[in-house]
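step=encode ok
step=design start
structure_in=
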């Protein structure tokens, strides 16, 4: 599943090719994604120019010159890529915009858990409803130890599912939660009630560093992630604990353990994480 770094890598790959381009024509496979595709509305976008390519959590946002916002969520296996005009359509290419420089922007999604939506001009309330569960960006200024401490107040949830809650912080999925907690020396099972201010600070710093490094690596290629220009990422070579049950810890040599927590596989080192 693409997490924040993979979505950011796609955004960075698309931005220089999309900003200023005009949408010329539209194609839909007719298949529904997680929800029905608003194909009629999307077809009305022909003639519009893209003015910005942004990301909010794991949503990719294309701003259009009439103020409308085209929103993509990649779900489990979605990808937005660029192809030359005439490149043969592959199975699972569900949406396609032809741009005025003869490039195709294609949405590919084998499992069809993704989502596409068009948010009307200046409709702030629709935008707020759409993004209502979005907490602060982990790489932004609002994500601080103080914020985490306040959100954890009076709760007894384990720290790993806590940081994977989008109202707490957006975009942290299973891979980067495991890796950040290892980097911070905090066990995934620890109750948020028992985490000190110093540890929250450590965790914020480790989440930022882990995500930034993953973005520099082009994301993690597990299952079939590809960036907008179809490159694989290589952060998975740097996984310290994720998927490494039974292997020696790279820091201390003790074996990495696995435990299911909140339905998700959690990997940790009993010596390095307290
Ligand atoms: Zn260790």
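sequence_out=
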């Amino acid at each position: 599943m693409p997490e924040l770094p993979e979505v950011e890598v796609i955004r960075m790959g698309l931005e220089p090719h999309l900003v200023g381009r005009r949408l010329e024509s539209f194609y839909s496979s007719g298949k529904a994604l997680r929800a029905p595709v608003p194909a009629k509305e999307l077809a009305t976008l022909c003639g519009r120019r893209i003015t910005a390519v942004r990301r909010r959590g794991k949503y990719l946002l294309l701003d259009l010159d009439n103020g409308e916002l085209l929103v993509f969520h990649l779900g489990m296996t979605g990808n937005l890529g660029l192809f030359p005009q005439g490149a043969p359509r592959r199975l699972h290419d569900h949406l396609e915009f032809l741009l005025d420089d003869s490039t195709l922007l294609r949405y590919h999604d084998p499992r069809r858990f993704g989502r596409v939506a068009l948010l009307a001009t200046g409709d702030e309330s629709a935008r707020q409803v759409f993004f209502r569960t979005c907490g602060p960006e982990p790489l932004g200024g609002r994500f601080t130890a103080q914020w985490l401490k306040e959100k954890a107040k009076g709760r007894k949830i384990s720290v790993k599912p806590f940081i994977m809650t989008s109202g707490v912080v957006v975009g942290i999925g299973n891979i980067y939660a495991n890796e950040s907690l290892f980097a911070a020396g905090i066990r995934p099972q620890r109750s948020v009630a028992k985490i000190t201010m110093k540890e929250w600070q450590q965790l914020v710093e480790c989440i930022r560093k882990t995500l930034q490094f993953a973005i520099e690596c082009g994301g993690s290629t597990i299952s079939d992630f590809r960036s907008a220009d179809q490159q694989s990422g290589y952060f998975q070579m740097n996984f310290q604990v994720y998927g490494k049950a039974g292997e020696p810890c790279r820091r201390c040599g003790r074996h990495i353990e696995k435990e299911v927590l909140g339905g998700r596989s959690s990997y940790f080192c009993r010596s390095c994480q307290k």
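step=design ok
step=annotate ok -> The chain has seven helices and ten strands.
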